[in-house]
Amino acid sequence: MNILPVLKDRIGFGADYNPEQWSPEVWREDVRLMREAGVSVVTLGIFSWASVEPAPGSYDFGWLDEVMDLLGEAGIAVSLATGTASPPAWLSRLHPGTLPVNRDGVRLSPGSRQHYCPSSPVYREAAAGLAQRMGERYGTHPALALWHVGNEYGCHVQECYCDVSADDFRRWLRERHGDLDGLNAAWSTTFWSQRVTDWAEVLPPRTAPTLRNPAQELDYRRFSSDALLACYRAERSVLRELTPDVPVTTNIMGMWEPVADYASWAPDFDLVALDLYPEPKDPAAAVDAAFFHDQMRSLGGGRPYLMMETATSAISYRPPNRPKRPGLNRLWSHQAVARGADAVMYFQWRASLGGAEKFHSAVVSHGGPHDRIFREAAALGAELGGLDGVAGTRVPAEVAVVFDHANWWALELDARPAELRVPERVRAHYAPLWHENVTVDVVPPAADLSSYKLVIVPNLYLCDDAAAEGLRRYVEDGGHLLMSFFSGIADACDRIRPGGHPGAFRDLLGLRVEEFWPLSDGERLGLSTGGGADLWADHIVPEGAAVLAAYTDGPLAGLPAVTRHAYGRGSATYLGTRPGEHVMRDLVRDPLRLAGVEPVLPGLPAGVEAVRRGGHVFLLNHNDHPVRAAGAELAPLDVAVVALGEAE
Ligand code: GLA
Ligand code: GLA
Fold first, then answer.
1. How far apart are alpha carbons 162 and 224 in whole angstroms?
2. Strand, helix or coil at 460?
3. Ligand nearest to the CA of 210
4. 0.85 exceeded by pTM
5. Chain Cα centroid distance, residue 431
6. 517 CB under 6 A from ligand 2?
7. Among this protein's residues, is 309 annotated catalytic?
């Protein structure tokens, strides 16, 4: 059964539908073409606020009634947006305070989208009011299958620095730290005379003469994530009340931007919806995409999710705006289904003639439904709609990669020993697993890890006590761990854990890091196991750990670079540096073997991705040449969905 029950046991196929840009004649043509393309679900009215509520408190539902009816009669399920992502011009005219303010104190103008302060009570009330009207109007409409609240929260405005936000931040800080003494301690305000004695002195981290207080920065990120979540919750609770049986979600972004702490949002999603725009020009795009799919599936506790947006072809905001070559959309759409998506949907159904995104690809292009894009989409709609026994099934994983937003925010703040970038760090650990065809879950540090054979922890600089204890217990109970340098250094307030690095994990890893030796650009160190490393070198003093590799040159020549500690019934392997790509693959293979983790299928040609989902194995050929894999002949960019047991 599909995670969206109305789709029954079929994989959903569809698009964002923005009918307010088109005439009623075009709507009829659209519905006809949707049926031709095998569309079973659309997400409707995402930017319709100004069309639905043209003046405050005055509503025009006629056009939307008609579109809902047309879709319903055609048997197309509707994920109905509340339409609150782009407030109408009148809102900011009447209430300029709803507009967000950036770090420099500049109030942003309307004329784009997402121009609201997440803490603004006026915005929240107006948005919840619209959600209420939508719920009352369409709550019992037979086409309604899902509520789509807002759109990509924080995509453009992640934080607002206005006075209303400052007040909301103070309220949030009282909840987190209690009184001013608690706040002063959490923010280490004795440094640089930053002690506050009155709540009025507590401010957002606005533009300042030099480095801002890192704990204040970190709390502002957390607060801003919570403020966006509060916007979502305000609308969700209205809809819950009116339509308790209709699931509610918002679409979140699979991209390398630390927008919001999605792991803390996940409990508020009835199902997870992903927007994903891999770059057709990037040869590693499929690896990143796989990571985001795994992350979305994991956010939903392993349940299927919807890929609510992707591009049939070109992505308008990334010049040069290159199309996807024939077959690539099919391949990447199947990748989503392989990794747990129960629907594949595109932004958008019909390419706009005007507006900022008119050069973004769609299912129906400017020239009409006669081109390659539409033909490919229609063939794919039929193919996905015909996949039997896949919707609703699960993707098993024996390995977890630990991923944490607070750590991301903290690691990329200023004045760290080296510029570590979380996307690069996560990729470096994830790519070897992808190449090995080992499926992973992506979990927060405090997750229950007991079901995993191997847990991989890329550079977890910031780690609270509960997470540190969870990881320790996991290994003690027989788990295997692979952890990279600069982990367990700071507590949740970005305060150093004293008494020797890495404070949170010294016992577990059986070592002490005497000093960090970040390397200059282009500086490389040799490793005794062959190959080299760069970026960073820990000066490791073993305290029980065995040395697996040592530096062969440079400031730490002869000292350990990679270690392993037998701890409890498990093991903890530690990488004190950044090995080159091939060394990294070997280094990941080793604990995989130790933990007894098998690939989905052994011996596949390079560039072939295999994922098991339910009773099927998906084989995805990312190569531009044909391959033979597990008994199947795969053309370039081809896909095979094989019943388990039939794959050799
Ligand atoms: C300057 C300042 C110090 C300290 C150091 C190191 O010398 O006077 O307070 O900030 O730089 O950055
Ligand atoms: C995002 C938005 C869409 C559209 C696409 C394409 O995913 O949700 O409205 O802007 O990007 O750029």
1. 12
2. coil
3. 1
4. yes
5. 16
6. no
7. yes
